[in-house]
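Give me the fold.
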Amino acid sequence: MKVKSFSISSKRYPNEDKMAIQNMGIYGIAIVLADGMGGLSLGNLAADVVTNTVADYLMKNYEGYAEKEVLHKALERADQEVRRVSIEKKSNMGAAVAVAIIIDYELYCTWQGNVRIYAQHEGKTELLTTDHMANIGYGRTALTRCIKGSGLRDDVPFLYHKLSEDDTVFVCTDGLYKVAEKNLGVLSADEISRKLNDPEDDASLIEVSFK
């Protein structure tokens, strides 16, 4: 597998996108991308806590099976850790997140919020995840799910997707796909990065290919 990634800060605020790419040896790789919630305080810290906690949990507990259970427990552990840090800092915080395990041309993923996972097959790029968003009026939207220390719903999404050697997987935050979705699979990660100049929002991309 080949992995390329970048994260570009917005021109106005510190970068609240955090990522982890964990090599798990014979158990493949784990990818975590979190986007701190701008409407709450300490978004960058929340994203950092979520990313590190999930990546650490998967590294210590994933053994090549029971992916749905392991991913769910990783999110639960992250939620517990965000709650602990929120109490410690006396501050509400939260982050959207997408998590993927890729092993032997198989993709297992879960998510909370609007960080997205795409897969490209035979030149066609398909969105695999569904945003947890609601229209709250006046052209505004809000996350309906995230990791913020208040527990998870029972129906945490889980998705399995079979891959082939010519496929490419993309994990990205809204700051990326809102301005460059059409370029996924058309331009390389390096080319997309060069085209993003002073984005309005933090823009992060992780690209996984097999050739």
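The helical segments are 43-61, 67-89, 174-180, 189-195.
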